[in-house]
């Protein structure tokens, strides 16, 4: 049988939380394109080729299965795939630097630069390179400089197409995005390349939702979108502290302000703090850029969003210790939920990491239940094995515990049999609802002392 000719060959370097789902969606929506995803990690690629994908994301397996073997490939052959690709998306990880200048703030771009150099050494024709990873503003320019300072005579046009999908809802976000943003240089070559990337998304996204800009606006918009979202959470979390001191209820306040259409109702849930791979990293990137340009007041303004988040995590543990008679040493505490949000197994920057470590530092015994994140939790808590246990049964986690701390808003937590849980716990039994998802009055009536976020506590003593 003759090999099928595809209209475009698309490659994605990096098979993570963004690259994998995005390429699966492009392949599923565009059978006329060949889409290949490469990664240096063979185990990760093997998982993408199997039915147990390396990430948990509702609905993703169906999308992958629809395209895999037809026009969606996963491979570790990076160079050969670079050679045949027309458009290369780059979605490698850009963690915060842990060393040198900008440590703890700036992005570590070593994977990005390595990728640029492998593109350069393998390419045998002009390419369009699309930044998908979140990167500091002006990376595209640095990338273009590395790529175009070569003797080959090939041209590499670097575009920015930031990804706005959220974990847990990636498939729906990709299928029906609020907007797709594509930034390019605004000269002839840039606009031509931009049109090609617009054409990909136009296969399923209405044109009016595909917006274009210059490269720097696109890069900065990603950081700013995440900074604004995180700022809303820190704002409401700061108010939750005030509510706990007064008789106000943060859920009522959030509802009242959210009905103002200028404010809007989303991202106003107070909780134990935001996590995830993006918010903190992107804000710190923004802070770093501002400091670089001497905009110290602006840097401090955005940094305070991260500080309030740390304060909220600390406050949560402080409350636990305080109300449990100022000591948790030797007490057993059940953690319900370790993922940074529901419907994902991802634990990056999860508030649960801080809370657990702090409880261990207070010499509590911690037992963790999470429906999807136990493997990641074990990795995050390596070295604390003497203090921490893991279980896939919430009733076993609660049995013999003095307290339960709810740290992820998994829906299943609300459906558990709390009478059974109460009966199996040490007394007095405490619940600290770090996500305000349980029926606090019902728990109180069973006999629990209940400590929500930003609402009056319901105590039996
Ligand atoms: C975020 C952005 O939403 C997404 O557009 C971007 O591409 C990547 O970063 P993600 O990190 O997957 O996505 O999750 P998100 O839903 O934004 O939640 C982040 C954190 O904020 C979670 O820990 C969540 O529990 C917390 N959160 C969210 C709150 O505490 N309160 C809220 O009201 C909303």
Structure write-up:
The chain has 461 residues and is an alpha/beta fold. Helices cover 42% and strands 14% of the residues. α1 (19-29) crosses α3 (60-67), α9 crosses α11 and α12 (296-323) packs across α13 (351-361). It has a six-stranded parallel β-sheet with strand order 3-2-1-4-5-6, with helices on both faces. The protein has a six-stranded parallel β-sheet with strand order 11-10-9-12-13-14, sandwiched between helices. It is elongated and about 75 Å long. The termini are far apart. The model has no long low-confidence stretch (mean pLDDT 94). The chain has helices at residues 19-29, 42-48, 60-67, 78-84, 110-122, 139-148, 170-175, 188-201, 215-245, 250-258, 279-292, 296-323, 351-361, 374-380, 394-398, 418-424, 440-446, and strands at residues 8-13, 33-38, 72-75, 87-90, 127-131, 156-160, 180-184, 210-214, 332-336, 365-369, 388-391, 403-406, 430-433, 449-451. It contains 17 helices and 14 strands. Uridine-5'-diphosphate-xylopyranose (UDX) is lined by residues 163-167, 226, 229, 233, 267-269, 271, 274-276, 278-279, 340-341.
């Amino acid at each position: 049988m003759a090999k099928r000719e595809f209209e475009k060959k698309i490659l994605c370097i990096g098979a993570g939380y963004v690259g994998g789902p995005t390429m699966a969606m492009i392949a599923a929506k565009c059978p006329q394109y060949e889409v290949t995803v490469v990664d240096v990690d063979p185990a990760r690629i093997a998982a993408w080729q199997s039915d147990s994908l390396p990430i948990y994301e509702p609905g993703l397996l169906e999308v992958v299965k629809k395209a895999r073997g037809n026009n969606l490939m996963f491979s570790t052959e990076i160079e050969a795939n670079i050679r045949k690709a027309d458009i290369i998306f780059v979605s490698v990880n850009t963690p915060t630097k842990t060393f040198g200048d900008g440590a703890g703030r700036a992005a570590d771009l070593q994977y990005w630069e390595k990728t640029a150099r492998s593109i350069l050494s393998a390419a045998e024709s002009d390419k369009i390179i699309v930044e998908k990873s979140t990167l500091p503003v002006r990376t595209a320019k640095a990338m273009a400089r590395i790529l175009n300072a070569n003797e080959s005579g090939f041209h590499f046009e670097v575009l920015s197409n930031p990804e706005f999908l959220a974990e847990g809802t990636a498939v729906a976000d990709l299928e029906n995005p609020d907007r797709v943003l594509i930034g390019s240089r605004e000269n002839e070559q840039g606009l031509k390349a931009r049109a090609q990337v617009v054409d990909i998304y136009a296969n399923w996204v209405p044109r009016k939702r595909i917006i274009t800009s210059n490269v720097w606006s696109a890069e900065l918009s990603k950081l700013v979108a995440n900074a604004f979202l995180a700022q809303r959470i820190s704002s409401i979390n700061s108010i939750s502290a005030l509510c706990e001191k007064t008789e106000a209820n943060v859920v009522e306040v959030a509802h009242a302000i959210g009905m103002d259409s200028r404010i809007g109702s989303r991202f106003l849930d107070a909780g134990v703090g935001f996590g995830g791979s993006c918010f903190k990293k992107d804000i710190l990137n923004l802070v770093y850029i501002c400091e670089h340009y001497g905009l110290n007041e602006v840097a401090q303004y955005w940094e305070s969003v991260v500080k309030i988040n740390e304060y909220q995590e600390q406050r949560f543990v402080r409350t636990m210790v305080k109300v449990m008679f100022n000591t948790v040493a030797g007490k057993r505490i059940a953690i319900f939920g370790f993922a940074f949000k529901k419907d994902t197994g991802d634990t990056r920057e999860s508030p649960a990491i801080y809370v657990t470590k702090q409880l261990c530092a207070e010499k509590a015994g911690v037992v963790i239940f999470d429906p999807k994140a136990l493997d990641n939790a074990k990795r995050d808590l390596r070295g604390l094995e003497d203090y921490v246990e893991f279980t896939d049964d919430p009733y076993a986690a609660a049995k013999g515990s003095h307290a339960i701390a709810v740290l992820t808003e998994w829906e299943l937590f609300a459906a558990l049999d709390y009478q059974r849980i109460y009966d199996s716990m040490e007394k007095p039994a405490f619940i600290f609802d770090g996500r305000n998802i349980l029926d606090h009055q019902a728990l109180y009536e069973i006999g629990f002392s209940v400590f929500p976020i930003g609402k009056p506590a319901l105590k039996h003593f």
